[in-house]
Amino acid sequence: MYLELVCCLLRSAARRRAAFFYDFGLFFAEICCKSSHSTNSTTVKIFLLRHAKAQPGFPDSDRRLEPEGSKHAAKLGAFLKNNPRFLPEKLWCSPLTRAQETAAVFTQSWGGSIGSPNEVEQLEPEIDPAPLVEMLSFERHDTLIVGHNPNLETLASLLISGERARSRVRLKTCCLICLQWNPLPNFGHFGPCELLWMLDPRVI
Questions:
Q1: What are phi and psi of 158, to 5 degrees?
Q2: Tens digit of each residue's pLDDT (9 = 90 or more) over 46-81
Q3: For a tag on the chain, would you pick the N or C end, based on fewer CB atoms within 10 A?
Q4: Are 146 and 51 in contact (CB under 8 A)?
C-alpha cells in the first residue's frame, strides 16, 4: 500500500516536471519568435550624435551653434566621409535649433546620401526617450539620431543595458556612438544593442 502511494506520488511529480519544462519551452520559443518578427535585423546600426557646442541664450530652443561647435560637426563629418562603417539612411533629429544645425553641418561635411530629417519630439531635452526603443525595434535602416543630454545618454543606456542608468555612457557635445541592434532572448538582463565604437572630434 505504502509502495503504491510512493509510486503514485513520484509519477505525479514527474508529470508536473514534464509539464513545467514543456511550458517553459513554449514560453522561450514564443520570446524568440517575437524577437525575430517584431525587431529589426541584427545588421541595423543606430548612431547617436549629441548636438555640437551651442551659444548660451533664451529661449533654449533657439540657441544656435558657436563657431567651435560648427567646426567640430564639420570635422566629424569629414572624418567619416566615404567610410563604409558609417552609412545611415535615415535621420531622426530634435526640433531644437542647435540639433538641426548640427545635423545640417555634419551631413553636409559627410557628403553621404541620407533622407530628410524626421523631427522627433522624444529627442527634446528632458523628454523621456524610452518610447524611442520600441520605435527603433521596427526600423529596418541604419539611423542617425541627433539630440541632447540627458535623454541621449539615457537612451544609450536603455539600448545597451535595458535600464535607464545601468550603463554609464558619457556623450560630450558632438560625440558620436555607434550601436548595432542585436537583441538576445535574455529576459531583460541586457538591452537590444551592443556598442561598436565612439568618436570625439576633439581627438581625431
A1: -60, -40
A2: 999 999 999 999 999 999 999 999 999 999 999 999
A3: N
A4: yes
